[in-house]
Every structure is written in structure tokens, then in C-alpha cells.
User: Fold these one by one.
Assistant:
Number 1:
Amino acid sequence: MMLTLYSRYGKQLRFLIAGGLNTIVGLSIYPLFYIFLEPIGFGYIQVLLFSQMFCITFSFFTNKYFVFKTKGNVKEEYLRFFAFYGFYLLLNLLCLPFLVEVIQITPILAQTLFSFAIIVSSYFWHNLVTFKQTKESLWCRLRNFYLGNAQFV
């Protein structure tokens, strides 16, 4: 029974395990960096940048080698991986100050709340774009994902 489930849903189960580990690391790194760097003059945005660089790289390696088990293409896959998280980083750079300065949420809580949007959407992006083993172009895969396999005449 368990072997059948793993053979059918192995990638999804590995993604949940890696996602749990990445979530623990991600939710721990920002507060740790904040606690140690804020007293020596780093602002919460600088801490965000440092922590995200660390977490993006850590998450890339867990996804590449444990979840999707792809061979080669490290630079290309890292660039696609970073494109996803880079987008969220830019969005985060807009949202975190709003949550902290306007809504008056502490930086650690605000960053924790924002992290859940990333967790929910990351599997789909990485499965369809970052670690997809196909010669089909990125734009074709995204088009097919959003529009189905419709042919454009």
C-alpha cells in the first residue's frame, strides 16, 4: 500500500518533505538573521535580502537533488528557480514595508505571513517550469498550463 502510494505520488511526497524542511529553514532564517543583524545596524529590508539569498539557494538544492532529481543544467535551473523567487522577492520588498510601517505588524510576523503565498504556489512553478525535463520552450509550457493544449492558428 505505502509502496504503491510512493510509486504513484513520490514526487509530491518528496516535495512535501522538502517543503517542510525549506519552510522550517525559511521561517527560522529571517528571525535569526534579524535577531543577530538588527542590533548591529541592519534594517529589516537588508535582513530580508540576506535571508532570501540563503533560503533560495538552500531550497534550490533540496528541490533539484531530492524532489525532482534532475541531472545537469544547474545554472539554467537555478536561473529559472531564482526567477520564481526573484519575483516573490520583489513583491516581498513592496509588501513587507507596507505590513510593517502601515499595518504595524512586527517584521518577523509580517515575513512569516508573506511566506505562505510562496509555499502554496512554488510546487506548480517548479514542476511545470524550473525542473521540467523537456525540450519544449518555457513559453509553450506556460501557455499550455494556462490555456490547455489549445493550438493557435
Number 2:
Amino acid sequence: MALTQIINAGIGQVTDIKLGGSGSANTLDDFEEGTWTPTSAYGSLTYNRAYYVKIGNMVTIWCQVYSFTDSSGNGVYIEGLPFASASGFAGTGVVMHQNANIGNEDDITMYIAGSASNFRLFKIRANGAWSTLTYSLLSSSHEFYIQFSYLTS
């Protein structure tokens, strides 16, 4: 990565940007943004938007997915993340949804395990219990807006 700066003498490259201090831990050593292609572990899916931003070893993704073709009891796994998660990392994120048959008091979250290039969706019950969201619980008009951040190597 190289950032371009305009200086009085012309255009040059900035190769050592430090934020909030002068130590090596403060060096911005990677920045990338782009799109990625979500896929389903079982069957196929349709997506409208899928973006990511990577700063250092932190990746943030956003996606809108719908129309999974599988209707089995398999868990909902979404694959194709732009970077695999770091070993030993696990995390959850935000999922806004509609038309999933999960109950009036339940909700949905996502989970990414360590060393993974996919994530899966879980039901969160009103009593705090959780379980894998399966394709059989999705209606034909379901829709998910997903956003989360994770560490990569």
C-alpha cells in the first residue's frame, strides 16, 4: 500500500504513516476496501450488496443477502469472506432481518470462528439460549442485513 501526497515539490509516496504515536504499533501498514461475493454452503443465495474495509488486521464487512435455495435442516453458513479470520479469534455481529420464522421474541446473530472464511447465523432465544438457524426456518421472502468486524492474520 502506498498513499500519495501532494507536496510543494510535486507528488510523492508516503510509506510510513503513524497514528497516535511514533512506535511501530502506531504504523498504518495496510488499508484496503472493496466488494466480496457471499455464497451459501448449501444451495445458492442472492445478494444485493457486499462490501469490506480492511485496516491493518481488522476487517469490517457489510452485506445484504436473501433468497437461499436450500430449504433443508442444514445450518445457514455464508461463505466467501475476503480474508480468513485469525487463528484463535471468534466473534459475533449485527444482523437485521425480516421474514425468518424464528418466533416473536427471538432474534438472529452471526458467529465467526477462528481460521474461518465463512460465518453462520444463530437464533437467540428470549431466555438467552441459542441455536443454529436452519434453512427450513426461512420464508421465500426472507432478507438479512449483516455487519461485523473480525481480526485476520
Number 3:
Amino acid sequence: MSAVAFPFAKVSIFNNRDNICRPKKTLLEIGKNIINSSFFLAVYVAVFRYVLCISKNLRGKMDRWNVVMACFLSGFAIFFEPASRRGEIALFLIPRMAEALYNEKVRSGHLPNVPRGEVLVFALCMALLMYCYQTQEDKIKPAFLGMFKKFFG
């Protein structure tokens, strides 16, 4: 669903006037973006599962190092996405990575279990984005900058 929704939403929200004037070009662009994103997701998942299976069979055990190897190698699937989209995907994944890291540290006992701690982690990630918006506006893509200005002024 997200592979379909994101390119469509991005094109329909940020290029509304062009969509009305050139609908065929817009639909072709949406189709191309959907295929690229679907290919990225398919390769990402397939490589992860394949490496996980192979490493389990070669090592004879299943532990977190198998997952680390699978994650590292599946991360190279990002190169199937256009360079302009890689930053967007990173922005999408950073809060999830922070939440996973937080949950792992709570599980291992390195951090206390705070009720609704994932909300705190998300708030910290949003604070980082707002800090970048306030201090380094020139580093933010124009489409995101326009969206931030719409919401935050």
C-alpha cells in the first residue's frame, strides 16, 4: 500500500496544477515511481530473508548477528531507488530505527522501561527535524520545506 500511496500523494499534493494540464505524463510518472518503489521493497525483503536463511544454515545457529548481516546486505537495495528519493526514505526510517534501538536497549536492560517510551523517541526525532527546519533551511528539499512552512509557518 505505501509503495502506491506515497508517489501518488507526493505528485498530487505538490504538483497539482501540472497534473491537470498533463494527466498522461503524471500517470506515467506515478506508474514509474510505483514500479521503482515496489522493486526496491521486493529486493529489500528478498535479500533480507535469503541472507537470514543462508547465514542460519552456514553458521548452524540463529542469533542477532544473522539479523545484523541480513539487515546490512538488504540495505543495499536502496540503490534501486533514485538518489532524490533516498533522503525521503531515510527520513521515514530514522524514527523507526530509533524506536527499534530503544526497544532493544529496554529489552537488554540498558535503559529503564518508560511507559509510552516510543512516543518520547518519536518526539525526539520530530524535535531533530524541527531543529533542522529552524537552523538549516537550505539543506531541506523544497517540497518538504514548503510542507513545513504550510504546517509550522
Number 4:
Amino acid sequence: MTATLDAPAVDDERLSDTFAALANSTRRAILARLAEGEASVNELAAPFDMSLPAISKHLKVLERAGLVVRSRRAQFRPCTLDAEPLRAVSTWAEQYRPVWEDRFDRMDDYVRRLQLAAPDDAPVDPADPGDPDDPDDRDDRDDRDEPTHERDR
């Protein structure tokens, strides 16, 4: 279990299993489909160009992570989404919100300073190297046309 001063304890192993399950685009697509409602393995497999055993392996990973629950109704074994592990991911990530917000605020301040420093008619283009004829706009490179590598000579 891991805890910070601001965040509740989170089961590290369960969190790792959830992130591992979410790391695969097929599994994320399966979860997106299950967010719409329960589905059979055949229904989940339909949009993918893979075998039913391959889909079943993905479902087993999702089940181990606690994201999918399979029930049994006679011959029908529908899969449903269990969002609890996603809440745990959200809770874990939430502890970093102050860091993100602080960095975004600093970036906003920096962009505002750049906009205030630039003349209104000259937009700031970070890709523009400046005027090569203006000594103040030149970088420290030697711009002569001489080759820089032996193989180019």
C-alpha cells in the first residue's frame, strides 16, 4: 500500500495491474464497448481482426485487473465493466493535480510575458531562428558553407 499526506492508501499491485491492463489499445476498446453495457465475448470480438481465444486472453487480463466481471446466465456469459479500479487510478492521479496546475499556471505566465514583450504586429514564432543578417539575431554557429564532416569534403 502507498499513501501520501494528501491521498488515501492505494493498493500498488492492484494499481499496477490496472495500468498494465489499460496499456493495450484492444483492452481499452473493449472497456469502451462495455461502458455502453454488457456484452458477450462474441460481441466484444466482432470489431477486431483477431481470434476468439485472443479476445479471451485480453478479457482475462481485464478480469485480473478487476475491470471486467463475467457472470453466467444459462449458456450466456455476459461481460460487464467494473469501474472501481478506474476510480482507484483517478484517486491516485488526483494527488498530482496541484503539480499540473502549478506548471500550467507558470506556462500561462510565461506565454503572457512573451506576448507582452513582442510588438503587436510581430507574432512570436518559436520556430523562427531570426534574421541571419542581424548580428543580434544570429546564433553562435559558423554559417559558412564549408563541410563540417570529413565525409562531406
